[in-house]
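step=encode ok
step=design start
structure_in=
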């Protein structure tokens, strides 16, 4: 099992920045891929970004504004969010999985990921 704990969420004005952190513990060697999804009320969980074998993938909606990074020595993954928009408001979930993902559609599916954090709220005000 891998346990994931997010931190860094909060309230920010549009155009501002936030940095989310996710600490992994347990069988961290099982977390080959790590990343972030988000959910807004009434909507399905939405892919944001993953880092898998050193390759990064981003949702089109965040490309150029968000950056994912990973520190394997600390078992941490980070999400730097810049130029935030009101529509980025959501609960952000850290995810991990033992598989490596390529450019196919599997990376977009929430069900592809075995491990989820409890989520951290990000609210962007206008």
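sequence_out=
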């Amino acid at each position: 099992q891998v346990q994931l704990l997010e931190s860094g969420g909060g309230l920010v004005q549009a155009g501002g920045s936030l940095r989310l952190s996710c600490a992994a513990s347990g069988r961290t060697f099982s977390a080959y891929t790590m990343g972030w999804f988000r959910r807004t009320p009434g909507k399905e969980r939405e892919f944001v970004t993953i880092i898998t074998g050193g390759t990064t993938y981003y949702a089109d909606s965040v490309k150029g504004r968000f950056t994912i990074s990973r520190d394997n020595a600390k078992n941490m993954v980070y999400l730097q969010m810049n130029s935030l928009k009101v529509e980025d408001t959501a609960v952000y979930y850290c995810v991990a999985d033992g598989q490596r993902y390529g450019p196919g559609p599997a990376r977009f599916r929430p069900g592809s990921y075995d491990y989820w954090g409890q989520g951290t709220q990000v609210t962007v005000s206008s």
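step=design ok
step=annotate ok -> Residues 23 and 76 are 5 Å apart (CA to CA).
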